[in-house]
């Protein structure tokens, strides 16, 4: 159940991996679409936290091109619906997330990413 | 039985059977629900704003279910795979992560509007290996520093936990303060053995004004957990003014017994008199 909303917040936390550790890259993913309740207030509140480029890239990689490349100034209803779909309805069920910097693999099994580190990777 | 955190590390203690038991026990569900509501109260989020919360040690999603009901969007982390499996079966709304909180989080700064955690912190206080990164102070430090940066400014994080000594509270609060948090310990029902609950209430940033640590609830909780007639039994077992126990075989008791024997037709039941039930003189 990695949704893009959490993927957009997730950076690598391996020891010493402090720069260029975001966003994690998806590989070999299987996605599932599940409907969620539309909540425009939440989306508006969440907008400032989004790293836009990472979100659009991840969405395109998962086959959703409904979002514009540039973050729009005006938040109309259509845009919010698209954003809602991308953020909260696309679930990554299986796959691997890789840190672009240290190449650590975080496997996603059954929708749950395994974020455990080996002893030498703990900061 | 000793505390669960002393028996095995969490990912082993909460195996398949224990995870099921823990989740299906209705008493446990009730306690968890009450604590979650109280923690949300202490979190003091602005009303009418759907917040994005982090549930630390979400387990099988007992607390997450309440977050769903209250309309929060949340993300949960836990170290026990069996518990997360139960959470998947129960179809909670939040995203789940298999993560050791003692290893720290990788969330971007300012990701969450708040964090809650029910009955988790005590699990961080045991060292599983002799490696320096698994010592409790190191793990706590890593946990609190990464959590501090993952929270928005200003925001709060509230933890309910079961400390077994004052030293543990001391260690936890001092580590949290070093990580940059303000706040402190809130104790509900401090004088009650059963209803007593310890909360760690941490603040990120002051937002210009100093945030106040909320006060704990006082007084005795009306307790559903006691057997209903226990009080009467206590009273009946009552003591005399001197503090000695009242003798059970007093005059009333003897009269009652004699009456009973007569009714049953027993012969040679002594007559009642003013001397009935009195002690004899000491003859020797």
Automatic annotation (TrEMBL), chain A:
Q: Which Gene3D superfamilies does the entry mention?
A: 2.20.25.10
A Pfam family annotated for this chain is Trm112p
Give any single GO term for biological process.
Answer: tRNA methylation
Which sequence ranges form a coiled-coil region, renumbered to this chain?
Answer: none
Query: A single GO molecular function, which one?
Result: protein heterodimerization activity
What InterPro entries does the annotation carry? Trm112, Trm112-like
What is the protein's quaternary organization? Interacts with TRM9.
**Annotated family:** Belongs to the TRM112 family.
By what name is this protein known?
A: Trm112p-domain-containing protein
Source species of the chain? Tricholomella constricta
Automatic annotation (TrEMBL), chain B:
| Sorted UniProt keywords | Cytoplasm, Methyltransferase, Nucleus, S-adenosyl-L-methionine, Transferase
Q: Which GO terms describe its cellular component?
A: cytoplasm; nucleolus
Domain (18S rRNA (guanine(1575)-N(7))-methyltransferase Bud23 C-terminal): residue spans on this chain? 202-281
Which stretches does UniProt call biased (Basic and acidic residues)? 225-237
Gene Ontology biological-process entries: rRNA (guanine-N7)-methylation
Q: Which InterPro entries match?
A: Bud23-like, Bud23_C, Methyltransf_11, SAM-dependent_MTases_sf
**Chain segments carrying region Disordered:** 210-249
Where composition is biased (Basic residues), the residues are 238-248
Q: Please give the Pfam families that the UniProt record associates with this protein.
A: Methyltransf_11, WBS_methylT
Q: Which terms does the record give in the GO molecular function aspect?
A: rRNA (guanine) methyltransferase activity
* Keyword field contains Iron: no
Is Nucleus among the key words of this record? yes
Residue ranges constituting the Methyltransferase type domain according to the UniProt record: 54-127
Residue ranges of coiled coil: none
Q: Which cell locations does it reside in?
A: Cytoplasm; Nucleus
Which protein family is it in? Belongs to the class I-like SAM-binding methyltransferase superfamily. BUD23/WBSCR22 family.
Task: Report the protein name in the record.
Answer: Uncharacterized protein
